[in-house]
Structures are given as C-alpha cells and as structure tokens.
Write a structure and sequence with these properties.
By secondary structure, this protein is an alpha+beta fold. It has 2 domains: 351 residues, ADP-ribosylglycohydrolase fold (Orthogonal Bundle); 144 residues, Jelly Rolls (Sandwich), CATH 2.60.120. The protein is built from 18 helices and 13 strands. A 5-stranded antiparallel beta sheet has the order 4-7-12-9-10. A 5-stranded antiparallel beta sheet has the order 5-6-13-8-11. It is elongated and about 90 Å long.
C-alpha cells in the first residue's frame, strides 16, 4: 500500500496523543455499598446522634473549662433515646434536608437561605445571627460574613453537618459542597470547616472502622493551613503521647481555650475548635466503645450534649443499626416526628436515600444490581478538594449579596404580623389579629390535640390579651351566633372573652376543668344586634398565673339560622 509523508505525520501524532492520554489518565477506583447496608449505617448514624445528645443534655454548659467529674455523667436509660426529638442540633439539619428534598440536591444557596429564614424554632449564636441577617435581606454568603455576623467560628454548623456525610458515603466532596451551601448560611472560616470535617468523617465511616483513618479522611477535607486543621493534627499527635484523655484534654485547654491566638473571632464556650477537640477525644480514647466514646466527649464539658452527639453519630455509623446494642434501640419510637420537621425516623431514612442516589450519580457513580437483584451503590473514589482558606479575624471582601424583592416576599418570619395573618386566614378568613405575643411559637400548626390546622395565639403580656377582630353584618329577622372551638396547652389555661361593640358577651376559662380532651365548644348569641353592623372581638386573655397561656383556635364561624 502506498502512503504519503503527511499520512505518516498524522499517524505519529495520534500515537503520541494516545500515549499521553494513557500515561496521564488515572485509574478510576470504586467502592461498592449495597443499598441495604447504606441504610443500616445511615440509620445507625442518626441513632448515634440521638443517643449522644439525649445522654449529654442534662449536662449542657454546666462544665466550662473543667472536666466533668467522674460519677456525674447521667446513667443511660433506653427510654432516653426519645428525648432527642426536640433537640436543635437535629431539627436544624433536617431543615437542610427538607430544602434538598423539595428542590433537589442542587438547590441554590439563596433558596436554602430563604428556607432557613422561614424556620420557626429558637436559635442562638451563629445560627441566630445568620438567620437574622437573612431575614433582614442580607443574602448568603454574606449572611455569615464577619462584617455582619460576630460569631462566625461558633460551633453551629459543626453540630448540624452530620446530614452532609450521611447522604455522601465515600463522597467527601459532597460534604464539602454542603458546607459551602448550608454552612455558609451562618458560619465562616473555621466555623464552616468544622462542619465539613464532620461531614467528611461520616462519609468515610461507611467504609472505614479505624477511627484514626476516619479522622484523617475528615482532615483532608478542610484547608491544611486553617486553625481547625491544626487542632485536628494536634489532637491526633497528643493522643499518641498522652496515656489518658484527661491529660490530652489539658493540652487542648491550654492551647485552644486559653491562648488568645486561638480564640480570635470566637465566642469562648462555643468555639468550634475546643468543642471539636472534645469530639475527637471521645472518638480516639473511646477506642470503639460506644458508651465510653459518648461519655468522654460529654465529660470534656462546654457544649456537652452536641459533642457526644457528633462523636456517637460517627462511631455508630461505622457499625450499622443491626449491630447496635438494644439499649440504644429497643425503646426508640420511630413514629415520633422530630420537632419543627416533617420527618419521623422512617421518613428521615427515606429522604436520605433519595438524596444519596442523586449525589452518587452526580459524582460519576452509578447504581447497579447484583446477581440476587439487590441494588448496589458504585461510588467513585475521589480525593477531597477543600474549600479555600478564610480567616474569620481577617475576612475577605463581602459579596454585596442582597435578596431581591421577590425573594423577600418568600420570607415569612414565623410569629410576624404577616405570618400570623396568613395563618389566621386559613382558620378564619376576614378576621384580623393584634397584640399577639411571641411565646409558644404562635401561628398555624398542622395538628394539635388530635385536630388539624390549629391557630395558636398568645397574649402580648400579663395585662394585654391577643385579640382577633372583625366587622360583621348581623342579618335582621334571623338568629345569628358565633361558634368557637377553642383549646389550651396541657400545662396551662386562659380566659376566652367575646365582645361585641366593646360590650362583654362572654368570659370563660379554657382549661383542664372546662374542656374535654383539651377542647371547648362555645356558642354566643348575637341576636341582640339584628340588623346592625358590629365590631366583634375574641380575646386570648391571660388567666392570671402566666403559664402556658396560649390560645388554641380550631373553629371560628358566624352562623345564621
């Protein structure tokens, strides 16, 4: 066959390119995890959090810069596991899961900020500062910037980042990305890295039981030059030098609690580095013992319910639910809904599986079936790519990020006049609300005392009732009544006062002795106002003892016979 010179040149170029590609290509490595095993370990991770926070809750912040004395740690009782359903470090992270469930894994940081701004639970520290900024229109990432947030290195995202690893088995970059999205709502620099470290440890715990390797995998996920990474390296090193966790604790105290260089932009008791160190102490000195791990993380002090929750979550993940002792599982009420969320335990597991499927495919993995027909996650092994280095005490420029008018219209602060009016319109259209106090989280509840769509109100103060009001035209020649179904909190009571044109028509206590199953039906005759237009008022009046004075409104209707 005859060929010309140019043909040889082209053949040579293709051979060279092929050789370069072969030499430059890195072999793709995969890890495999059955869906059943994933759910086993993911569920165990949640149980570890529940156990740790419940066990440590009675001790929270009672021991500051001191080790909790031996013997003070509460005794674990299996029923305590259910105390976790009202804990903030669990329901806050479920807000993030809910955003992704509704909008997908790639939900925007701005939508995540809107959802967080709309949360109705109480918050503190960096969480509170970040949410307040969002509600004022300061959009992420600026909501956590030290210019607007004075506690960027607080523990907040560290205690809320567990979800990010539980939906990212073997995928540290997914946990890192979650930090850049949800951690940025309230934390900056070390405060965000603390959560990314935690998420990456969980991600590795699906495949690795050795705690040092789990911690080292987390360390690779945060900037090596950060103080938080320095803390992790120190604790790993000191744990090899110190025979007891108490001795290692003292070294952590001297450097990361007392040295001003490591308290810059920090809020003392809840600084992420010192509390993060206690999580690591529990994991390293607990040596795989579930009880001891939680106890050490708790006895370190400071945020002594959140720290054992994190340590317990990581360690429990390495084992899987079926391998957990019954004392942590036998009395778990899986039907209980976590406070301020849409999830009970089965619902939580399902949403995590839904999201992990998206994460694996997005990262270049796939879902296969084995010979038995079981689904298998095929997960690519990729090196962690940490976020860029930021210093909370010397921050970079702000992003000048503001919510638009349309975005601000989506933010309905629970308890605000806007939110209360929307809630009232769903129960009693045409009525107005005034002087509603913030206690007992007023607004619309999906269910209370066995009834659906309940409006909760609360007096403004001990002397000022919350008032629902409207103008009403009373037909002539017909009997008209206002019919109410009202209830009360199990721990309190209140006085229902009905007024027409400022005249008191009814006053009745709504409490344990006047209700059936917490509810009271009331009918007030308005026949005296036939043919008139009157001003009606329904008052949630304090009863006098100022204890759980919230008014529950299931029915408000004006009916003519």
């Amino acid at each position: 066959m005859k060929t010309n010179k140019n043909s040889y040149v082209w053949i040579g170029m293709w051979i060279t390119l092929l050789a370069v590609n072969v030499r430059g290509a890195e072999p793709t490595e995969y890890r495999r995890l059955s869906v059943n095993e994933y759910r086993e370990k993911m569920k165990a991770g949640w149980i570890g959090q529940l156990a740790g926070v419940s066990w440590g809750a009675p001790t929270e912040f009672k021991y500051r810069s001191q080790i909790m004395p031996d013997g003070i740690m509460p005794k674990w009782l299996p029923c305590m596991i259910n105390d976790a359903f009202v804990q903030d470090d669990l329901y806050v992270e479920m807000t993030f899961l809910r955003s992704m469930e509704q909008y997908g894994l790639d939900v925007s940081i701005r939508q995540a900020g809107i959802d967080f701004a709309n949360s109705g639970y109480g918050l503190w520290c960096a969480n509170a500062a970040g949410r307040n900024n969002l509600r004022k229109g300061i959009a992420p990432p600026d909501s956590s910037h030290p210019k607007f947030n004075k506690c960027p290195n607080d523990i907040d995202y560290q205690i809320e980042a567990d979800y990010s690893g539980l939906i990212a088995p073997g995928l540290p970059n997914v946990a890192i990305a979650m930090g850049e999205k949800f951690g940025r709502l309230m934390n900056y620099g070390d405060g965000m890295y603390a959560g990314q470290l935690m998420g990456a440890m969980y991600a590795e715990a699906f495949f690795e039981k050795g705690i040092i390797k789990v911690i080292e995998a987390g360390l690779k996920a945060i900037p090596a030059e950060s103080q938080h990474a320095e803390m992790v390296r120190d604790v790993l090193k000191w744990s090899k030098e110190c025979p007891t966790w108490e001795e290692c604790w003292k070294r952590c105290e001297e450097k990361y609690r007392k040295n001003p260089e490591y308290q810059k932009a920090s809020n003392g008791d809840i600084d992420c580095k010192i509390n993060g160190a206690y999580v690591l102490l529990g994991l390293l000195y607990g040596k795989g013992d579930l009880d001891l791990t939680i106890q050490i993380a708790c006895r370190g002090g400071q945020d002594s319910d959140c720290n054992p929750s994190s340590a317990g979550g990581v360690l429990f993940t390495t084992l899987g639910f079926s391998k957990l002792p019954e004392r942590f599982t036998k009395e778990l009420n899986e039907k209980t809904v976590f406070s301020h969320t849409a999830y009970n335990v089965p619902g939580l597991l399902d949403v995590c599986e839904k999201l992990v499927r998206q994460a694996i495919v997005k990262e270049g993995g796939r879902i296969e079936k084995n010979a038995k027909g079981e689904e298998i996650f095929v997960i690519p092994v990729k090196p962690a790519k940490p976020s860029k280095l930021e210093l909370s005490w010397a921050p970079g420029p702000i992003a000048e990020s503001k919510f638009t008018e349309a975005e601000m219209a989506q933010i309905i602060v629970p308890g605000s006049a806007k939110a209360l009016k929307i809630a009232l319109d769903k129960v009693a259209p045409g009525w107005s609300i005034a002087n509603c106090g913030a206690e007992m989280e007023p607004g619309l509840r999906d269910e209370e005392l066995g009834r659906k769509n309940i409006l909760i109100t609360h007096p403004l103060d001990k002397d000022t009732p919350c008032v629902l009001s409207r103008m009403a035209d009373i037909p002539a020649g017909k009997k008209t009544t206002i019919k109410l179904t009202v209830g009360h909190h199990a721990g309190g009571d209140w006085d229902l006062v009905v007024r027409g044109d400022a005249q008191e028509l009814l006053r009745k206590t709504v409490g344990e002795t006047t209700t059936t199953n917490g509810w009271l039906n009331v009918s007030v005759d308005l026949s005296a106002y036939r043919g008139k237009r009157i001003f009606l008022e329904l008052c949630n009046q304090p009863s006098g003892d100022w204890c759980w004075e919230g008014g529950y409104w299931a029915r408000i209707s004006i009916e003519t016979e």
